[in-house]
Task: structure prediction
Amino acid sequence: MTFGLAFLAAIGSGLMAGLFFVFSVTIMSALGKLPAAAGIAAMQSINTTILSPLFLSVFMGTALLCVVIAIVAVLNWSHPASAWLVTGALLYAAGTFLVTIIFNVPMNDALAAGAADSSEVAGIWARYLSVWTGWNHVRTVTSTVALGTFIQALRQL
Result:
């Protein structure tokens, strides 16, 4: 059972790492080059479109898997894979899931609160581009390292 959970967590972490990587190296830079109203409108559309059942299943399902994996690994601490499993689970749960909930989602909500061409939302945009992207870099790194630790754990299971 642990192998299957770790395998699914590796897949989920990898999918999220790829998504966040693309935002960090491409999408946010491209949106920043557009006139503010166009960039804001595009990001508002992305933020509503991404909340699909498939995305939410992978994003939240991986977080749930990480909780289960951490508990199982702690209960079987003497196993050589346990430290890798707990590390991967904590990286994803804290550095990917919680960072999203605490930092990125509130910024998305603030951006969604007004019309793309309003001066209020335009004032949020410059900060959004730098701060939201900074936190996205954190999510990119933590989900990528979580993937690596799950792979290492799989080698020992």
Q: What stands out?
A: The mean pLDDT is 97.
